[in-house]
Specification:
Length: 220
């Protein structure tokens, strides 16, 4: 696994922050990536925000970056997000927009985990070690038959339905979280499931202590 620790252009941090502020996420079309990086997905949990940014690298491969921010009620205007920090990145050897990339390993129609890593972040929660906790960050590739991902919490209530802006979806889990992710296809009367669901949880061992800022590794 190759770790990406190079400095990222400030423009990507700005794109991530604007996405958290409400700018729509966009799919990684060639037209978009030719102009510059795009925000492909956003995950917000309370005052914590995470953004998946995609960009075309100089070597022609697709780069994936994850940014993080937080809302400090005492640090500025109500609801304002702080400057985004770069958590890590990876390199796609297959473009997710290509049919062969989206078909490989997706015979059962289930979303495929393409990057999965853990970073230690200051979440501010009382359950953490002086506010620091290990956070699991997962990027999923949706099957080509699906146009949305339904993400359901452990209590059975639907927490979000990911809009069909990109074949990639970002899922962030805090310690103790459990979610079920199922691909769905829209119909005239709603949504029908596609394939099998994927269950994700985050139960770090008591001695779990990932390095702060640990980067997300290369995709296969």
């Amino acid at each position: 696994m190759t770790r990406e620790k190079r400095a990222r252009p400030p423009a990507m941090a700005g794109i991530a922050r604007r996405a958290l502020e409400g700018a729509p996420a966009r799919g990684p079309s060639e037209a978009d990536l030719a102009v510059g990086p795009v925000a492909a997905d956003v995950w917000i949990r309370g005052d914590l925000g995470f953004v998946l940014v995609l960009h075309r690298r100089d070597d022609g491969f697709l780069g994936e970056e994850v940014y993080h921010s937080f809302r400090d009620p005492e640090g500025g205007p109500e609801g304002a997000w702080s400057e985004c920090d770069h958590l890590g990145g990876s390199v796609w050897r297959l473009d997710p927009k290509e049919a062969r990339a989206r078909g490989t390993g997706l015979a059962n129609g289930a979303p495929m985990v393409v990057t999965d890593d853990e970073v230690r972040l200051h979440t501010g929660r009382a359950s953490g070690d002086e506010g620091w906790e290990p956070v699991r960050i997962v990027v999923l590739l949706a099957p080509r038959e699906a146009d949305a991902l339904a993400i359901t919490g452990a209590d059975g209530t639907s927490s979000r339905r990911r809009p069909p802006t990109s074949p990639l979806a970002l899922v962030v889990l805090l310690p103790g979280d459990r979610v079920r992710v199922r691909a769905t296809r829209s119909t005239g009367g709603g949504h029908v499931p596609v394939g099998e669901p994927v269950d994700l949880d985050h139960t770090p061992p008591p001695d779990s202590d990932p390095d702060p800022g640990s980067a997300i590794g290369d995709c296969p």
